[in-house]
Amino acid sequence: MKVLGHKIELLTGLLLQEVTMAGLHELRFTEEKPLLRGQDTELENSDAFLSAVDTDWKEHDIETPYGLLHVVIRGSPKGNRPAILTYHDVGLNHKLCFNAFFNFEDMQEITKHFVVCHVDAPGQQAGASQFPQGYQFPSMEQLAAMVPSVIQHFGFKYVIGIGVGAGAYVLAKFALIFPDLVEGLVLMNIDPNGKGWIDWAATKLSGLTSTLPDTVLSHLFSQEELVNNTELVQSYRQQISNTVNQFNLQLFWNMYNSRRDLDINRPGTVPNAKTLRCPVMLVVGDNAPAEDGVVECNSKLDPTNTTFLKMADSGGLPQVTQPGKLTEAFKYFLQGMGYIAYLKDRRLSGGAVPSASMTRLARSRTASLTSASSVDGSRPRACTHSESSEALGQINPTMEVSC
Fold it and tell me: How far separated are the first and last CA of the chain, in Å rounded?
């Protein structure tokens, strides 16, 4: 792993909490069709948004208690292995937000061993019909409450969530409500705070003086990028303007800027503190607009199961500008949860190289490394950091890795 001047602080561990999915609605597919090369020509013509050739990807429109969700999925559930579920930022959709990351070769070596499910917020997918006048866009809490519908319909037992910006907020809220459905979370550019009056007024003023795409760009990119990285910014300006319905986008943007505080606190700081119970990797680029929010979110999470990654030279969209570094971090994150990746190293010129695989890490080292199952016999969770320390001897709780 190359040293590029920044460090990732890895703090592993998991806490147990099992709850039920009582009350989830019966759902059904209303549409299913394969994604084929040739669709969304504007996206394919731009190198930044090229899709991998994979006819296994299928589109679905799924009914939820708060309307339809557009979902793109590859694969089918495999035993107890979680699905990888993504949720994009405001102004984007799953293609604009995640194609560069998931099409990165090393990331494909990892994800081909999992079901991958991309969720588009209502009306944000390419080619979406415009919502009628007077349509009430779901609140951020309602968006989170729509996710279990996807999980139940596809038969996932639990997921590893990857969210960016508004999508990170949605997945964090979802994990607070349904912790038993979440194996882990990668939250990029998350802001746990609601908008105050000053922020609200600034947003309103910006809406009067700037176009919607330009307002969204200032949310996605740092000021330095807006000035210097004109090619990337211009590409996203064009895609946001041409592939996302502007009326629908305005509704999503308004709702995101009306969000409430995520209502999390680090355990021990307040009575009955509520926080995320699964392993979390927080990611933000240096000088990104969301940097302060991510730092604050880190201060509110349990340090024993939180990883904070600040990526140098990545700006506001690290999954786009630094997919290689993010893939490496994601691999370590999976290993910390008990999955181990054997990935072909293309830098090696000879010798035996393990073939790509992704398997559950064996628990044979010591009995204390396997957490107790819940009374209903559901899956065992990976060990907490404190448990592994007791079993394997004194371990430095902070491991610094430069990549």
Answer: 5
Which structure tokens are listed for 272?
């009955």
Q: Tell how strand 159-164 and strand 182-188 pair up.
A: parallel
CA–CA dist 48, 37 (Å, integer):
16
Angle at 46 between CA 45 and CA 52, to 5 degrees: 80
pLDDT of residue 121: 98
Q: Is the dihedral of CA 217, 218, 220, 223 positive or negative?
A: positive
56 CB contacts (<8 Å, ≥6 apart)? 34, 74, 75
* Dist CA 338 CA 240 (whole Å): 38
Confidence check: pLDDT of 21 > 80: no
Query: pTM, whole model, 2 decimals?
Result: 0.75
Which residues, in sequence order, are CB contacts of 324 under 8 Å at separation 6+? 104, 106
CA atoms within 13 A on the CB side of 321: 21
